[in-house]
Structure formats: C-alpha cells, structure tokens
Amino acid sequence: xxxxxxxxxxxxxxxxxxxxxxxxxxxxxxxxxxxxxxxxxxxxxxxxxxxxxxxxxxxxxxxxxxxxxxxxxxxxxxxxxxxxxxxxxxxxxxxxxxxxxxxxxxxxxxxxxxxxxxxxxxxxxxxxxxxxxxxxxxxxxxxxxxxxxxxxxxxxxxxxxxxxxxxxxxxxxxxxxxxxxxxxxxxxxxxxxxxxxxxxxxxxxxxxxxxxxxxxxxxxxxxxxxxxxxxxxxxxxxxxxxxxxx
Length: 246
Ligand code: OAD
Known about the structure:
By secondary structure, the protein is an alpha/beta fold. It has a domain at about 1-35 and about 80-125 and about 170-245: Rossmann fold (3-Layer(aba) Sandwich). Helices cover about 35% and strands about 20% of the residues. The protein has 9 helices and 9 strands. The chain has helices spanning about 5-15, 50-55, 55-60, 65-80, 85-95, 110-115, 170-180, 200-210, 235-245; strands at about 20-25, 100-105, 120, 125-130, 135-140, 160, 185-190, 210-215, 230. α1 (about 5-15) crosses α9, α5 (about 85-95) packs parallel to α9 and α7 packs parallel to α8. The longest helix has 16 residues, at about 65-80. 2'-O-acetyl adenosine-5-diphosphoribose binds near residues 26, 28 and 163.
C-alpha cells in the first residue's frame, strides 16, 4: 500500500503537466465547513426523513411546509458557515493550472464565494427561489410571505432553486460539463459518493478520454475503482497539501 505522501507526489507530478483539468466536487468538499453531507446520517429534526423524499417535486407537493422548512434549515447552515481550506485550495489550483473548471454538485455556492471563476453548478443554488409552477427565478420582492412556503405573484408556491430527484439538470451546464470531461487530461474528484447521475458519469467521460483520474475522499466511493490515484483523507487537509506540491 503506497504511502499518502508518495501518492500525493504522483498526483502532483501529473497535475503539473496538465493542460485541461476538470474538478468534480460533492458534499464532502463542504463537510469541513459544517455543511451536512447528503447521505451522512441526517442530524436532529430530519433524522426520520429520507432526504430523497424531501428533495423531490412529489415530496414538496405532499408536504410543502415540511420541505420548505428543511431547505430553510439548510440555508441557515450555509449562511452561518464559510468555505474551508478545501475550497481555497481549489482557488489556488485554478490560478496555477491553465484551464481548470470546477464542476460541482453542491448548491452552497462556496466555490464562488471562495474565489473560483470557472464553475459549472449542476444542481442549482440553495439560496435561489423559483416559482413551483412557472419554474422561473424569483427576486426577493416577488415573494408573498403571507404563507409558508411563500407564494409567487402567480399564486403558486415558491420552491428552492435546486435540482430535485427526478428533475433534469440545467441542460447547457450539463453539456458543458460533459464536453469539459471529454476534453480534459486530468480529472480530480473530491468528496462525492459518486452515486447520483448524471454527475457521476463525468469521471467516466474523462476515463474514456484517457484522462488521469485522481480522487480525494475520506472513504472509498463508487468511483474509486477507476482512479489512477486515490488520496484517502479529508478534503480540507489533503487538497491544500496536493496543491502546495504543484
Ligand atoms: P454524499 O453525501 O452522497 O457523499 C459525500 C461524500 O463525501 C462521501 O463519499 C463521503 O465519504 C465524502 N466525505 C465526507 N466528508 C468528507 C471530507 N471531509 N473530505 C472528503 N470527503 C468527504 O454527497 P454527494 O456525493 O455530493 O443532489 O451527493 C450527490 C448529490 O446527491 C447531491 O448533490 C444531492 C444528492 O441528490 C441535490 O441536492 C440535487
């Protein structure tokens, strides 16, 4: 079993020569910011709910107040925390390497807040609001707060601006992400279980393009078997070490 230091050197050597880097991030990159990951045991009030039930149009229709409350609870956590060293290491990475794109499944906007420029947000933004009927983005002054959830000017409920189970991802963002994966020579996967499609296909497109695959995760994931290098550890600790070697 190679030491983490040897693996870090191997990964850094390959990144130094990289022409186009795709970084796929998941909830694990925000875990050390205090944002609960999606599949870790739900904490507190939400312990008895299956998150997939809460993060779906059916779940929202069945119990709009409950789902709205879950997102308000998650929004509060995002508001009260900040990016962690893993996010800032990716800002450094983008500065050091010519063409780096962050493809994220996360909805907390921490990559943008930390300072990355080239970001593709596959699952939307938790702080944004959309009309449940029209789908359009709503400005704060378009929300009628006389009910919970608030209502749009059209009378329908307001929903958070994230992609839910069973919904399609923003099509041009997704096709851009697939194109980047097909044309990258290094794909770095950080903090994702690799179980939710279509995001989990991105490392496979990179593999088909003969890219060098590197994963950082505190546990093996569904993607670990296709990696050239698996760096086991916390993103907030391993990513800064890796980027400092480039
Ligand atoms: P998960 O909660 O499924 O997986 C989090 C991954 O991060 C796991 O592999 C953990 O082992 C790893 N992890 C946890 N803490 C870590 C740390 N400190 N450092 C490194 N890795 C760590 O989250 P995702 O894979 O991101 O979609 O879930 C993908 C999507 O599933 C989410 O975007 C969400 C859900 O459907 C939407 O909300 C639309």
